[in-house]
Amino acid sequence: MQQNHNVTEFILLGLTQDPLKQKIVFVIFLIFYMGTVVGNMLIFVTIKSSRTLGSPMYFFLFYLSIADSCFSTSTASRLIVDALSAKKIISYNECMTQVFGLHLFGCMEIFVLILMAVDRYVAICKPLRYPTIMSRQVCIILIVLAWIGSFIPSTAQNILALRLPFCGPNLIDHYCCDLQPSLKLACMDTYMINLLLVSNSGAVCSTGFMILIISYIVILHSLRNRSAEGRKKALSTCTSHIIVVILFFGPCIFIYTRPPTTFPMDKTVAVFYTIGTPFLNPLIYTLRNAEVKNAMRQLWHGKIISENKG
């Protein structure tokens, strides 16, 4: 297969071509992106600073916040800049880097969500063995494995993308570079590559979703023997996780588990998991979590007191 590409840059069509709508897109997604960065920054500063948030659940939440921030940055930042640009040009190298970042941090989010489900399963179903099973050393090993597990499929995606010959045209009907919309521009038969994409990203999304659903069914089933107060606390935590899982995996599965076909709604659906979920995660995990809210209040209160003393 010839591996050269005559195209040195691509033009992203974005969410809309209408000048007025582009300004609306700029304002809306700038707010979303700033909310994502500030919200996730607040979460991992709170977790790092608080002595009460030392459990494995918050250890994994810290890395979920990092994955959310990087995942949103890899897509939203480009969308925001392009909304005010006359020509939405992205170089070939930038495009390939964005493909890599999108899949790296997307996979990391999937693996961290799975680790959070495992943590809840052990905490609820095996409470006496929880400190031993989910020790600090085990959690660190699991996070390292999650990074490795994210790096492998995202590198595979990039190898596929780099081997595609682009001879023109160079218009990508999307707001970011992803392998699926790019396949339409390759001057070769991409059927087999699309099958590899489905078996890679599609398998990661589908398998991750099934693992999470099964784990939460087991968890919810085990709650029947708990006290009313214990059930309420466990349900509150699990509900937050389930909301995140549905918001993230629903659009992912729709995009990455299909035959080689693209739909006009793909860009809108992609907004949910690339920008919407990273924005909502901090709200879901703080507004529905009393421990995080209390830790934030203590952190804020402590800073005010120290500033007054100073």
Automatic annotation (TrEMBL):
It is found in: Cell membrane; Membrane. It holds the Pfam family 7tm_4. CDD domains: 7tmA_OR4A-like. The chain crosses the membrane at residues 24-45, 57-80, 100-118, 138-156, 201-223, 235-256, 268-287. It comes from the Eukaryota. The keyword Membrane applies. GO terms for molecular function: G protein-coupled receptor activity; olfactory receptor activity. Keywords: Cell membrane, G-protein coupled receptor, Membrane, Olfaction, Receptor, Sensory transduction, Transducer, Transmembrane, Transmembrane helix. GO terms for cellular component: plasma membrane. It is a multi-pass membrane protein. PROSITE patterns: G_PROTEIN_RECEP_F1_1, G_PROTEIN_RECEP_F1_2. The keyword Metal-binding does not apply. Gene3D superfamilies: Rhodopsin 7-helix transmembrane proteins. Residues 39-285 form the G-protein coupled receptors family 1 profile domain. Belongs to the G-protein coupled receptor 1 family. This is Olfactory receptor. It comes from Theropithecus gelada (Gelada baboon).
